[in-house]
Protein: NADH dehydrogenase [ubiquinone] 1 alpha subcomplex subunit 13
Organism: Mesorhabditis spiculigera
Amino acid sequence: MAETGFRQEMPPQGGYRKFNFARTFPRMVWRPYLALGIGTAITIVGSTYAVWRKKWYITEKFEDVELNTALQPFLTAERDRYWLKILKKNRELEAEIMKDVGTWYGEPVYFTLGEKWWDPTHVEVLAHSDPRAAEWEVLWRHHAEYAAPHFWDKLIPNFIAKRFWDIKKE
């Protein structure tokens, strides 16, 4: 038979090396008991801190509720005083605007309530106010949480604090 240049690939002399099919474990960085001890210690410290923090939060919330309860009559009186002040200003402005308006052959041109009271909406009350003041009044919320200066107040630039919170920083 003539040689065609084809050669069959055969295993090396002595055969292939043995295949390792036994289960192998990665090298341990920490010993299991050390990891278990550290995990247990972290859990105990974290749980203790969580219980302490919850008690502290409940105390703070209780103080805030007590403070809010004590100040509520004053806050309500100030809000009502401010509301009446705006209503008085609106009444004077509307009297100035409507001074030349009369009647049409004895019939009033505009509907009036006379001596009856009608609770006006925010839009009616703040009609003669600056639009930003109206927006502030409608969107502002009373917050029960801690309202004293925070550590991050120093990190907020003046132009941002003034624009969003009307805070005058020194």
